[in-house]
# Entry
Amino acid sequence: MSMWVIRIFFLALCSLAGYAVSQSAELGLIHAGWQGLLLGFGFGGLMIAIDEMVKGLSLRAFSAATFGLFLGMFIAWLIDSSGLFAYVEEKAVMWVIRLGLFLGFGYLGMVLAMRSNKEDFSLIIPYVRFVSQNKPDIHIIFDTSAIIDGRIADLIEANFIEGIVILPRFIIKELQGLADSPNTLKSERGRRGIEILNRIRNNKNIDVKIHEGDYPEEKSVDTKLIRLAKNLNAKIFTTDYNLHELAKLQSVACINLNDVIRFLKPVILPGDVMKLKIVRKGEKSGQGIAYLEDGTMVVVNNGQDYIGNTVKTEIQKVVQTGAGVIIFADVIENRPYNIS
# Structure
């Protein structure tokens, strides 16, 4: 509807411009006012008709058609300048030939350019690629748990995470509050979080912007994060299961780092051979307990005699329980590997 309002306004302006031309004694082109109105109205109608015909034409198609037109005209000029028609003596015939030459090659150039894709232009202009510069920015937000965890900094340094890090002021205050806490454990966690933040800010692979906004009406930091993520259309990175579920409930993009690490864990199958350090005895006689790097418990049969040592084992079975995965293995050599 708004487009037609603009068109009607344009028609009115064209009609008034035509009437003004008819009343101008200096121009002297049209002497009757109604003729000027009609001419202006016709000109405006012609422009609107052309607008309707090309409304499905994108800027890329227009650019391609223009490029094809110039290319076709250039080829026609080369043929015309080659002297191929030098023996045509009549000017009228030569004019018709040149007109047909330029119109024909101009048309062919436009059609071929509009039917081509962007990769075809690399044949004409080698090593040139046109890249869109208006890509939407990716905003990411880290909650306190993800910052203190520290693995997020490793992922950034490995270029697994790209975008603009939005660092809310209320998250910085929360970390400062933990660092100043009289509780030793909380204080250590707060100081670690601040160190990780400085590590992220000093990383040249990613942009960090501090967001001063706050939501005083929200008492929970989690709800503040979710509201901020909604407003900025940002992703939240966390290790907090409850925040992850709450964000999903409100249709906010949220990534649990624990899930990412779990997805990236190597698959262990029966028959695999690995070296494990036996750290303690198991529940049953003769069993030893070892742990993988991700904390998965491995029950090693006949491993009790090797507590404190590293032995070569063979995986026998992998059992999925409600608490996680338990792996059972057998010692396959009698000589332990001392850790030294």
